[in-house]
């Protein structure tokens, strides 16, 4: 490694041959908060109403990300339109969450929660992370509901007659057998959740791009419906707290599926 | 002395009517009982009346009177029963278990018998009332919920692949094995009734078993009959488990399992048992202290394929000026070991810098640094998590946390 004096002399000689980089400032002039990536203020979803001239992010693809002209012929078979009407979306949320459902989530998150990765090649964001959290919440609430369900405890399967051991009895452990009687993998299946989402009207408002618009089942509409359902629960948890999200999961998803 | 004068048949009969005992530890009170204990130790049966007749004894005691008391009647006490796991009462006598309970500072409401149950894997004992399967299912969902919410609140911009990897690093089976070993939990060589309840009991795999092949042979829960379909990241949220790994279809719980799965099942079951006996907050505190307190160098989990392109797409999406790489400083350009410090700028803001032995390497490292500084944005390590609102008496209103729209697709 060259010594400091050698470096300095090298640098000074280089400076004479090359134009100085005006941005090569000293490190101390850098901002102390290393999390700032830009000098412009970060976008807060709640501030959108103040700035009416800017379009909301959910409604357009950033111009910089678009190619100057489309170089693939637009096939009529592959064309697929999705909802872009905010009122239709609001009606879906009111239908799902009840009165005042359209103001549970902020505007951007309302759209993000029902946007799949296939929509617009992922340029307007997608709901994977929200669905990741939402699925954890739903699984946990399903397990807790089964353990504390009195109807399931009353109708538990009888024990094996050959095994006459006396198990350890405790009131807290009474509901444990319900978890093995009703395996979660058979109760919360992809098909059941997809059917529930369709009855809510999710298929008409979610934003995605099917591989074959004339064959939605083969394009995986069930997976997209599940993702959007999980994502709504996850979004509510991050914007309204875990208690609210658990209630929504229990009342709006588990109860219609028969777990309470 | 003749057998007759001693009336040995009647003498034994009186002794045989004594109260039965289930334990083998009770000393035999007569020769006949003692020999039955010795001869019957090989039987394995669950039936209540395990009888073993020793023909040698029958010859010695001949019914000379013909009373019909008959050849000896074997005791009906089930001394020879071989249950696959220790009885719940044995948990109260185990010093290992009591020491584990005290060492972990488990709540007093959690009884030793439940802790003993958490140490029994379904491969050791298939009876659902005696193994930890249900407890592990409940505890696993509690733990993965707390880990995922903490990760999403602390690192809101993590890409999905890194999120899965971080979740695996915090509560995957290998980590849980480390955690349980740190707690001082040892495994029993083989499950059985005589095993001390403080040992982790499960059926061990034979050395050299290809467990991955066994798991893969059963097929997964995905409908991928034709394996040429690419298994994308988005569909993992619906089809796969919390780490993005495929869930095997066949779930035979009686088969042998690897040690890490057994340890993972134990830790999850312990969390489930704390939740049931001591409440939700106790389980959350336990997860926070033992799982979420671990250090993870999350920046090492990233792997970028084309960082320069990804950074350029990110700036285009966010509306930043197009990123430009500029040399900040350099030395030894014509020597054998040049060092170039390159910074990537969006307008006047420096997004990241990196150094390397060539201009290309330095630019790539700078792009990687810029992307990491974007994806690893964190509002802080001790932010409020959604489950804080589920605590009783929580008065402060919930502040919405930052939700990122997703990683850059390029």
UniProtKB/TrEMBL annotation, chain A:
GO terms for cellular component: mitochondrial large ribosomal subunit. GO terms for biological process: mitochondrial translation; RNA processing. One of its GO terms (molecular function) is ribonuclease III activity. It comes from the Eukaryota. Residues 107-257 form the RNase III domain. This is RNase III. It comes from Glarea lozoyensis (strain ATCC 20868 / MF5171). The lineage of its organism: Eukaryota, Fungi, Dikarya, Ascomycota, Pezizomycotina.
Automatic annotation (TrEMBL), chain B:
It is found in: Mitochondrion. Residues 97-279 form the RNase III domain. GO terms for molecular function: double-stranded RNA binding; ribonuclease III activity; structural constituent of ribosome. GO terms for cellular component: mitochondrion. Transmembrane segments: none annotated. Pfam families: DSRM_MRPL44. GO terms for biological process: RNA processing. Coiled coil: none annotated. Keywords: Mitochondrion, Ribonucleoprotein, Ribosomal protein, RNA-binding. Residues 306-376 form the DRBM domain. Belongs to the ribonuclease III family. Mitochondrion-specific ribosomal protein mL44 subfamily. This is Large ribosomal subunit protein mL44. It comes from Glarea lozoyensis (strain ATCC 20868 / MF5171).
């Amino acid at each position: 490694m060259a010594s400091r004096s050698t470096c300095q002399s090298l640098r000074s000689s280089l400076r004479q041959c090359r134009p100085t980089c005006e941005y090569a400032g000293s490190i101390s002039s850098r901002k102390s908060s290393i999390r700032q990536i830009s000098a412009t203020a970060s976008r807060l979803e709640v501030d959108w109403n103040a700035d009416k001239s800017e379009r909301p992010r959910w409604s357009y693809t950033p111009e910089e990300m678009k190619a100057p002209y489309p170089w693939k012929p637009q096939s009529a078979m592959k064309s697929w339109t999705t909802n872009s009407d905010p009122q239709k979306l609001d009606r879906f949320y009111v239908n799902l969450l009840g009165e005042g459902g359209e103001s549970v989530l902020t505007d951007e998150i309302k759209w993000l929660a029902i946007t799949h990765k296939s929509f617009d090649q992922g340029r307007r964001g997608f709901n994977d992370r929200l669905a990741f959290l939402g699925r954890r919440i739903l699984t946990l609430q399903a397990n807790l509901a089964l353990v504390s369900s009195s109807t399931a405890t009353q109708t538990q399967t009888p024990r094996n007659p050959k095994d006459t051991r006396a198990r350890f009895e405790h009131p807290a452990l009474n509901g444990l057998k319900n978890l093995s009687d009703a395996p979660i993998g058979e109760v919360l299946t992809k098909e059941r959740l997809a059917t529930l989402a369709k009855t809510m009207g999710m298929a008409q408002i979610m934003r995605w791009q099917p591989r074959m618009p004339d064959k939605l089942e083969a394009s995986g509409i069930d997976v997209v419906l599940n993702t959007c359902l999980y994502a709504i629960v996850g979004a509510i948890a991050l914007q309204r707290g875990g208690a609210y999200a658990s209630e929504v999961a229990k009342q709006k998803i588990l109860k219609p599926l028969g777990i309470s | 002395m003749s057998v007759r004068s001693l009336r040995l048949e009647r003498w034994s009969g009186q002794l045989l009517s004594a109260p039965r005992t289930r334990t083998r530890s009770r000393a035999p009170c007569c020769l006949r009982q003692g020999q039955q204990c010795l001869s019957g130790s090989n039987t394995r049966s669950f039936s209540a009346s395990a009888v073993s007749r020793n023909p040698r004894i029958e010859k010695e005691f001949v019914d000379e009177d013909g009373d019909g008391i008959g050849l000896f009647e074997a005791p009906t006490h089930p001394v020879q029963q071989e249950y696959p796991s220790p009885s719940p009462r044995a948990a109260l006598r185990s010093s290992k278990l009591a020491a584990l309970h005290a060492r972990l500072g488990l709540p007093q409401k959690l009884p030793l018998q439940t802790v003993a149950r958490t140490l029994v894997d379904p491969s050791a004992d298939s009876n659902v009332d005696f193994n930890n399967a249900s407890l592990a299912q409940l505890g696993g969902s509690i733990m993965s919920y707390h880990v995922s919410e903490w990760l999403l609140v602390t690192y809101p911009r993590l890409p999905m692949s890194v999120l899965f990897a971080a979740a695996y690093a915090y509560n995957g089976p290998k980590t849980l094995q480390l955690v349980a070993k740190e707690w001082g939990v040892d495994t029993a060589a083989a499950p059985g009734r005589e095993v001390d309840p403080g040992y982790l009991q499960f059926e061990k795999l034979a050395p050299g078993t290809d467990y991955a092949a066994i798991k893969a042979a059963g097929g997964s829960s995905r409908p991928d009959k034709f394996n040429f379909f690419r298994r994308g990241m988005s569909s993992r949220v619906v089809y796969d488990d919390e780490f993005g790994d495929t869930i095997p279809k066949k779930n035979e719980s009686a088969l042998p399992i690897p040690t890490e799965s057994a340890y993972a099942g134990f830790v999850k079951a312990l969390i489930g048992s704390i939740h049931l006996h001591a409440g939700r907050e106790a389980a959350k505190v336990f997860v926070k202290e033992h799982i979420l307190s671990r250090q993870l160098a999350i920046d090492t989990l990233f792997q970028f394929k084309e960082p320069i392109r990804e950074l350029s797409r990110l700036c285009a999406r966010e509306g930043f000026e197009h990123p430009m790489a500029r040399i900040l400083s350099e030395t030894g350009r014509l020597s054998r070991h040049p060092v170039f410090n390159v910074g990537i700028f969006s307008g006047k803001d420096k997004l990241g810098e990196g150094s390397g032995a060539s201009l290309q390497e330095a630019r790539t490292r700078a792009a990687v640094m810029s992307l990491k500084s974007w994806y690893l944005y964190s509002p802080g390590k001790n932010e409020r998590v959604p489950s804080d609102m589920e605590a009783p008496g929580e008065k402060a209103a919930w502040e919405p946390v930052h939700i990122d729209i997703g990683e850059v697709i390029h």
